[in-house]
């Protein structure tokens, strides 16, 4: 919780100072205040759709109650954001445990463009599972970038988890195939597969991912159990655009939003969670293993409005 609070510091600071400037000298929430609030929410990376929904709800309240004091704006915003997020009924994870009742190995495919923190997120997740005594295997199927393979191996060495790799420029599907094969043979609990994220060639990306899915299903019919899209929260609206593109290219079942520390764009978590109705499972608020946290909507709102 502390690191969540710390991770959200910049976002909060920026948001509340803008909000403070807007209401200074004004006691009532009127059209002007609402217009400015709309701009603040958009500039805080909540996205246009989510912002419009929030503003509409506050307008309804103003119309119904005839009067809304600016001193109550914090409280109202908190309520509306909380109710918006709770309505999207995606379930929050409670901890890092694997879903129950899944035949081993659980196969997790991780997607996302380069630089968003994909490899780091995989390393942090692997460390969490390893800590629980789970048997983890990593597949270095991001074969497009030499550094990605090396980096995954570094994580593997560091936390004592085997990494299946064929080196650079090899066929990602063949790496994925071998990783899942080994996962089955070794009775691993989880196989995590790193994939290359070349979004600029969407057709390639789609083909590559569907080929990976096809080959790993030879070993585990339900695989992948999860397709986790990693997004860099500090890129704000770019993260939103990537989410849109990836969800068009493949079925994304969960999200991780990284680098919320050191950015004022943390509002993007609210926007993405609301817009895509795909569970945000993890947020990254720093470089250490513990800085990858399980995301909880209400904890996030609480921390934001604390
Ligand atoms: P990839 O290209 O998507 O695999 O990205 P990497 O995993 O190599 O991460 C890129 C950089 O972002 C690395 O320097 C990571 O340490 C850093 N990084 C990843 N997640 C976080 C985070 O939550 N907070 C911060 N501050 N840095 C992060």
UniProtKB/TrEMBL annotation:
One cellular component (GO) term of this entry: plasma membrane
Keywords, alphabetical: Cell membrane, Cytoplasm, GTP-binding, Hydrolase, Membrane, Nucleotide-binding, Receptor
A GO BP entry: SRP-dependent cotranslational protein targeting to membrane
Record's subcellular location: Cell membrane; Cytoplasm
Alphabetical list of CDD domains matching this protein: FtsY
Signal peptide: none
Catalytic activity annotation: GTP + H2O = GDP + phosphate + H(+)
Gene Ontology molecular function: GTP binding; GTPase activity; signal recognition particle binding
Record-listed GTP binding positions: 112-119, 194-198, 258-261
Boundaries of every SRP54-type proteins GTP-binding domain copy: 279-292
Family annotation (InterPro entries): AAA+_ATPase (IPR003593), P-loop_NTPase (IPR027417), Signal_recog_particl_SRP54_hlx (IPR013822), SR_rcpt_FtsY (IPR004390), SRP/SRP_N (IPR036225), SRP54_GTPase_dom (IPR000897), SRP54_N_sf (IPR042101)
Membrane topology summary: Peripheral membrane protein
Matches recorded under Pfam families: SRP54, SRP54_N
Source species, domain of life: Bacteria
Listed EC numbers: 3.6.5.4
Assigned protein family: Belongs to the GTP-binding SRP family. FtsY subfamily.
The protein's role, per its UniProt record: Involved in targeting and insertion of nascent membrane proteins into the cytoplasmic membrane. Acts as a receptor for the complex formed by the signal recognition particle (SRP) and the ribosome-nascent chain (RNC).
NCBIfam families: ftsY
Subunit structure: Part of the signal recognition particle protein translocation system, which is composed of SRP and FtsY.
Name this protein carries in UniProt: Signal recognition particle receptor FtsY
Organism: Marivirga sericea
UniProt lineage: Bacteria, Pseudomonadati, Bacteroidota, Cytophagia, Cytophagales
Gene that specifies this protein: ftsY
């Amino acid at each position: 919780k502390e690191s969540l609070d710390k991770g959200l510091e910049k976002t909060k600071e920026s948001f509340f100072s803008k909000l403070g400037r807007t209401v200074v000298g004004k006691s009532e929430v009127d059209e002007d205040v609402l217009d400015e609030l709309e701009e603040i929410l958009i500039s805080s990376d909540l996205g246009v759709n989510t912002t419009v929904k929030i503003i509409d709800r506050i307008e309804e309240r103003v119309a119904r109650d005839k009067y809304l004091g600016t001193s109550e704006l914090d409280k109202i915003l908190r309520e509306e954001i909380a109710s918006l997020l709770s309505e999207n009924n995606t379930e929050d994870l409670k901890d890092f445990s694997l879903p129950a009742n899944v035949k081993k190995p659980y196969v997790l495919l991780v997607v996302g463009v380069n630089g968003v923190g994909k490899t780091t997120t995989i390393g942090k997740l692997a460390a969490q599972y390893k800590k629980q005594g789970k048997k983890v295997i990593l597949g270095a199927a991001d074969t497009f970038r030499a550094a990605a393979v090396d980096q995954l191996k570094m994580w593997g060495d560091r936390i004592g988890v085997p990494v299946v790799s064929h080196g650079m420029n090899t066929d990602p599907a063949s790496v994925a195939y071998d990783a899942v094969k080994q996962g089955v043979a070794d009775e691993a609990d989880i196989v995590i597969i790193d994939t290359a994220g070349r979004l600029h060639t969407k057709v390639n990306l789609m083909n590559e991912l569907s080929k990976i899915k096809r080959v790993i299903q030879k070993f585990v019919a339900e695989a992948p159990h999860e397709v986790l899209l990693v997004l860099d929260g500090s890129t704000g609206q770019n993260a939103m655009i990537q989410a849109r593109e990836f969800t068009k290219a493949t079925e994304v079942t969960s999200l991780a939003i990284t680098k919320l520390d050191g950015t004022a764009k943390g509002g993007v978590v609210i926007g993405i969670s609301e817009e895509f109705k795909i569970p945000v499972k993890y947020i990254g608020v720093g470089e250490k293993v513990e800085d990858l946290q399980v995301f909880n909507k209400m904890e996030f709102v609480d921390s934001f409005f604390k």
